[in-house]
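WARN no homologs supplied; continuing
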Amino acid sequence: MGRKIHPLGFRLGSLGISQMKQDLRNLLGLESQNLRVTLTGVIQPYGEPKILAEHVASQLKNRVPFRRTMKKTIEMAGRTNGGGIKIQIAGRLNGSEMARVEWAREGRVPLQTVEANISYCYHPAQTIYGVLGIKTWVFRDT
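OK structure emitted
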């Protein structure tokens, strides 16, 4: 079984945090300075737009219908903190000739409000028909 490689080039797995810190020091040119790495867990993983977008991408790569995927993902995320969630998929949906945009929303997602606590993520999904763009917005009403 091969080692996992982080997108920035870090080796993950049995090498541990100290090796990652050393790789970061070399990458950033901070050999003589101290570097502190703090790991934090995600309390609500399905409240994070990056995790939701990756989930939608993996479902679309497995050729699950996009409307079902959006509905199940919104259901999985639930309405956290009285906020809302919006998912948008753009591209050649179901392999059609014409690209289009479909979206689904539950709850409030006030994109025009500057002070709104909205987390956003874009994630591309490579399918057999081409690339689909997946955007997720999660609004946390505090």
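Strands lie at 4-5, 11-12, 84-91, 100-107, 118-127, 130-139.
OK
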